[in-house]
Design goal:
Helices cover 26% and strands 19% of the residues. By secondary structure, it is of the alpha/beta class. The protein folds into 2 domains: 289 residues, FAD/NAD(P)-binding domain (3-Layer(bba) Sandwich), CATH 3.50.50; 95 residues, FAD/NAD(P)-binding domain. The chain has a 5-stranded parallel β-sheet, with helices on one face. The chain has a 5-stranded parallel β-sheet with strand order 8-15-9-10-11, with helices on one face. Strands 4-5-6 form a 3-stranded antiparallel β-sheet, with no helix packed on it. Helix 4 links the parallel strand 9 and strand 10. It starts with a strand and ends with a helix.
């Protein structure tokens, strides 16, 4: 029997488990042998980054903390753009809910679908993958893993390996002159946990993407004395409320004084670096490592999934992302069908050409709206090659574009809008409390 290893039981890994479970339960593929599957997860529960953990640095087992999740995080994109086509939010909660739920609500939704799939017995929790290698002679992978509960190390053989560990856990952390003598706190967003820590402080937020805008907004919401946003990529350009300002990139620090390239300066108490993450796979042998940057057309991956040149290795969710959960799903369906022989891959040369052409197409994109359409078309292309249930990527593309316009209109109020579900057609109701005033992010309060 074919053996398949899945590394990670976050959203991507759960999508892969769901894909195999669907084939197992689908009469249309009766008689097709489902592989023997083992999923490795170093945390004690599934959910990946959506598991909140107060720990930073190292976890209870001495492993690098995977999650970058923080308290009071609310979805900063419409939930309708990530909704599972075979498991709607209304299926899970029994009624329509607002478009921008907090982390506990989204985590409950992700885990609810996983529980329904009857796949938990396939996951080895509290188990870290130490090494993945490939033997050309046997055409098999060897995975060395460590069970932190049993305190035992195991070697297992597999025919295929699917890496679903994500790429938002290894911080990209710049350094500027004066960091070594700055008397305040300097952290990466990966180690940010609670906005109330910065109440009454003057906070410098570095970066210009989603984490920067969200953490800046959250620090303001929970009482920071001031928030100064700085970035080498230019301003985010939102109509910020009083208390949040934007500056060009810093040049250096002198004590608590941050100096900027425009000649201005300001006093700060803390720096939160929202400067992105690196693709990092220390457990993979060098010839199996994905070397990639955060872009829509991921290097080294045919169809954004199949590794070059070893087609028995696959990576999920490695793209820069507009689409998330539903894109992970169609990638998982595609990977499943390659493994089960339902999709025949072209030659290595044709695969390499597809990768090059796909990257060139991304390079021609003019703006964020073009990027949305690009990833929507990519998601649809994969979907059409499998039996994944059809969903309206055009509606999702438009929802993303409406969301971007709402953010320009009100960066603090965009979460108060409702969007249409591509699954049920329902337009989400307004939440009972505006985001600015919603200080409690619990599932019970949100659903109340």
């Amino acid at each position: 029997m074919t053996r398949v290893a899945i590394i990670g039981a976050g959203p991507s890994g759960l999508s892969q488990l769901r894909a195999f479970a669907t084939a197992r339960d689908n009469e249309s593929v009766e008689g097709t042998e489902i592989p023997d599957i083992v999923c490795y997860e170093k945390q004690s529960d599934w959910g990946g980054l959506w598991n909140y953990n107060w720990r930073t640095g190292l976890d209870e087992n001495g492993e690098p903390v995977h999650a970058s999740m923080y308290r009071y995080l609310w979805s900063n994109g419409p939930k309708e753009c990530l909704e599972f086509i075979d498991y709607s939010f209304e299926d899970h909660f029994g009624r329509p809910i607002g478009s921008f739920p907090p982390r506990p609500v989204l985590a409950d939704y992700i885990k609810g679908r996983a529980e329904k799939s009857n796949i938990r017995e396939l996951v080895r929790f509290n188990t870290s993958v130490r090494d993945v290698s490939f033997d050309q002679a046997t055409d098999q992978f060897t995975i060395v893993s460590h069970d932190h509960v049993a305190q035992s190390t195991t070697n297992d053989l597999f025919d295929y390996v699917i890496v679903a560990s994500g790429h938002f856990s290894f911080p990209n952390m710049p350094e500027y002159p004066g960091y070594d003598t700055f008397p305040g706190r300097i952290i990466h967003a990966h180690d940010y946990r609670d906005a109330t820590e910065f109440s009454g402080q003057n906070v410098l937020v570095m970066g210009a993407s989603y984490s920067a805008e969200d953490i800046a907004s959250q620090c303001w919401k929970y009482g920071a004395a001031s928030v100064t946003c700085t970035s080498r990529n230019g301003p985010m350009g939102f109509d910020w409320p009083e208390g949040i300002t934007e500056k060009p990139i810093i040049t250096h620090l002198e004590g608590r004084t941050a100096h900027f390239t425009d000649g201005t300066s300001t006093e700060i108490d803390a720096i939160i670096s929202c400067t992105g993450y690196k693709h990092h796979f220390p457990f993979m042998a060098d010839d199996l490592k994905l070397h990639a940057t955060n872009r829509l057309a991921t290097e080294m991956l045919y169809r954004g999934v199949i590794f070059q040149p070893n087609n028995k290795l696959m990576y999920l969710g490695m793209q820069d992302q507009w689409y998330t959960f539903n894109m992970f799903d169609v990638q998982a369906w595609y990977a499943r069908d390659v493994i089960m022989g339902r999709i025949t891959l072209p030659s290595q040369g044709e695969q390499a050409q597809w990768i090059a052409d796909f990257a060139a197409s991304e390079d021609d994109i003019a703006d964020d709206y073009g990027a949305i359409d690009f990833q929507g078309a990519y998601t649809r292309d994969l979907m059409e090659q499998t039996d994944y249930p059809n969903f309206d990527t055009g509606l999702i593309d438009q929802t993303f574009k409406n969301w971007k316009k709402h953010k320009k209109e009100s960066i603090m109020g965009y979460r108060d809008n409702g969007h249409q579900s591509p699954v049920t057609g329902t337009v989400a109701p307004a939440h009972h409390t505006s985001w600015v005033e919603a200080l409690d992010d619990s599932l019970e309060t949100f659903l109340g």
